[in-house]
Amino acid sequence: MWRTIPYVLPTFALLFAVFGPVSGLPAVMLGLSAFGIFNVLGLLDLRQRSPRMAELECGPGYIDIKKAGSRNQRIHARDITGATTARTSTGVLLTLQHQKREHPITLELADDAMGEKVRHALGIGHGGFGVIAWRTRGEASQRSAIVGRILAAATAFITIGATLGISTEAGAVAGFLLAVIGIIGAILGLAGLSSSLTEPSVVMGADGLRLKTPRGWFALPYEAIHHVEDHTKSLFFVVPEPYRSVIVEQVRPWMGGPSESERRMMVSQITAAAQRARGMGPQKNDVSGRIDVLRRNGESPRDWLVRLDMAGQMLSAGSGYRGNSLDVEDLWAILEDPEAEADLRAAAARVLRHSPVPETRVRIDAALAAVRDESTSRRLRIAIRDDLDGASQELAYLDATERQPSARMQVDPYGRPIPGR
User: Fold this and answer.
1) Of 152, 145, 150, 144, which Cα lies nearest the Cα of 182?
2) pTM of the predicted protein model
3) From 52, 213, 242, 402, which residue has the greatest number of CB atoms within 10 Å?
4) What average pLDDT does the chain have?
5) Domain extents for the chain?
């Protein structure tokens, strides 16, 4: 929506020239100027293409980007549909797919500690999640729109130049001869402005890449990626036999393609994913096995919650945990791990709510705020209720609801639902 703001002034000027109190030559010049500027704006690349220094503040379930000028914003955990990280010589790259943005957002963070802080605020696990999609190619409609805007702007400015530089009659002749070209160009430009988004050509998923090549879609597991090279006009993937290489076309930024900075970040993320697939990089410290005693194991909701409350009371008394091979830090690690099982996270929250530490409730609420999955969120909120009877009933209802069979919905490579036939 913000991208339409620059068009407001030339549109208002054009309407003023047509319907306002001005008339004659001034009205014509104002209208042609507004028409030309409108089409020139359509040729400008208004999207941020290079990194911008900013400050980050993390809150429960969101981060605030500050001191970034027009890019100041709040990013909520529930708006993130995909995330992946890469370590570079200068820090950590965290790329986010935002459901309200056309293109991924990449944060370049100073170190792992800041990366962990941001990931906790947004509920992103060690291995990332979801889908990241980049657009590197331009569609025919976009190319036509660019040509149309150039023709329309040229028509307007040639007419203005002929009028002011030669004579009113010369301007009228130029306008008459070029009118059809200008109208067709404007139509092409407006069609491109309202056309649908370019289809992504590089899609990162959990199992590998989907690449839109000149010959069609190509699935590429991460472990099969030997090397990625940015050739400006194409991404070149070195892969095993029999293919040897896979090429994805790229267009210039002014035609909707990625900038040099965006290409660098994209290559870094793909390279990091390929390295992780080969076992390189830091491994996750999985503590779930150390709190197996908290699993439900077929218990009724009430019996399970009562047992968790007993464990929580032992925690509050300051004894019993180490003897049961449990540790408070393990409980926090599970609760704050988006990749952990929902029941284990709920169990950890139920036990931790008994802790006498003043900051416990705030930290539990922060973990809840970063949960995107509605079912997990409900399970956690039920687990921390003080009313045992009410919590037991709600948990039983949630169990019954989730056991009901539901129709599976197919999705395309970008996570969009495919309508049933």
Assistant:
1) 152
2) 0.78
3) 213
4) 86
5) 2-44+139-194, 55-136+200-277, 288-403
